[in-house]
């Protein structure tokens, strides 16, 4: 494919900026099936995109450098931000020397297991393609996105996806038979989990023996139940962050929330409670939980909401 020849600066989008929603994800189950020689692990996981997300504004830049700004002080603004990495991948793959001004309005916590940074990267890839006159197909963007991180390709799925490999092999599935407006509560302590540290603590002997295809079939048939929401990274994450185990126990056992399932997302440190809109009581009761991030969220699929299509309301 000769992307550069298809790039005509005059054919760019007439508006030179777009404002986009950048969703996050949870893992309804996550099995780790093998340790690989390349340093990664093979996964089998049910990812679901959710409606907690950031806002990103992309503008065609006049110069030869990307410029990233953010409302959040803790967001890295250089090469270690996956948005910049995504734009570098776009330029490398297409040969199009276009740079951007980006503003990132951050809402999704980082180090949370919610794929916030990965979602931003997918949104950046999509936006760069859009603003340069769509030289690449969605399938190509999905393929390129695996170079940015293992959790990026799922953001080109329809929203509910069975992911294997290191997470980058994405298979769209029938969403679980629960209404999209099934409420969930996301609870994240201030402390984060670093993905490589969590994987380092993982050992195959401790993994669940559940067949992931069977888990997928069970969820599709019976809905989201505690016994299907297995996450092999929970035990290793609890070793990295011992207070997380107590947090999960307290959410499962106490308070107002009556969840049909409570589980950790990704490599942590977010604990998800599905099926009840009430946050656990203790978050208000106890001073030491004041730093806990709590949000309500809902499932999101592309049937319902083309999350990358700038709606009129979202247009800059
Ligand atoms: O692909 P990504 O850059 O998101 O992965 C970050 C780190 O997480 C990897 O360097 C690796 O240590 C760990 N990881 C893993 N197996 C995966 C995904 C991530 O071991 N499937």
From TrEMBL:
One of its GO terms (molecular function) is ATP binding. Residues 227-285 form the GHMP kinase C-terminal domain. GO terms for cellular component: chloroplast. One of its GO terms (biological process) is terpenoid biosynthetic process. Pathway: Isoprenoid biosynthesis; isopentenyl diphosphate biosynthesis via DXP pathway; isopentenyl diphosphate from 1-deoxy-D-xylulose 5-phosphate: step 3/6. The keyword Nucleotide-binding applies. It catalyses: 4-CDP-2-C-methyl-D-erythritol + ATP = 4-CDP-2-C-methyl-D-erythritol 2-phosphate + ADP + H(+). Coiled coil: none annotated. Its EC number is 2.7.1.148. HAMAP family: IspE. This is 4-(cytidine 5'-diphospho)-2-C-methyl-D-erythritol kinase. It comes from Klebsormidium nitens. The lineage of its organism: Eukaryota, Viridiplantae, Streptophyta, Klebsormidiophyceae, Klebsormidiales.
């Amino acid at each position: 494919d000769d992307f550069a020849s298809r790039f005509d600066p005059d054919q760019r989008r007439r508006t030179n900026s777009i404002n986009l929603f950048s969703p996050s994800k949870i893992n309804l189950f996550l099995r780790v099936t093998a340790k690989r020689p390349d340093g990664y692990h093979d996964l089998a996981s049910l990812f679901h995109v959710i409606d907690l997300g950031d806002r990103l504004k992309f503008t065609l830049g006049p110069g030869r450098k990307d410029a990233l700004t953010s409302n959040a002080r803790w967001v890295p603004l250089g090469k270690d931000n996956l948005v910049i990495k995504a734009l570098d991948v776009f330029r490398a793959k297409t040969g199009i020397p276009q740079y951007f001004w980006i503003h990132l309005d951050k809402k999704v916590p980082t180090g949370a297991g919610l794929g916030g940074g990965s979602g931003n990267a997918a949104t950046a890839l999509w936006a760069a393609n859009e603003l340069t006159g769509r030289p690449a197909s969605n399938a190509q963007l999905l393929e390129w996105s695996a170079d940015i991180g293992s959790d990026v390709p799922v953001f080109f799925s329809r929203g509910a996806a069975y992911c294997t490999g290191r997470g980058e092999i994405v298979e769209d599935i029938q969403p679980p038979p629960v209404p999209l407006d099934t409420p969930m509560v996301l609870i994240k302590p201030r402390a984060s989990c670093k993905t490589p540290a969590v994987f380092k603590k993982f050992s195959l002997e401790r993994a669940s023996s559940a067949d992931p295809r069977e888990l997928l079939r069970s969820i599709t048939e019976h809905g989201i139940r505690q016994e299907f929401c297995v996450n092999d990274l929970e035990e290793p994450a609890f070793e990295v962050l011992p207070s997380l185990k107590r947090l999960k126990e307290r959410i499962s056992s106490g308070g107002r929330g009556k969840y049909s399932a409570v589980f950790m997302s990704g490599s942590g440190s977010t604990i998800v409670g599905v099926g009840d809109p009430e946050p656990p009581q203790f978050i208000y009761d106890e001073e030491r939980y004041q730093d806990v991030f709590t949000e309500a969220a809902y499932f999101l699929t592309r049937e319902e909401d083309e999350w990358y299509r700038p709606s009129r309301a979202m247009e800059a």
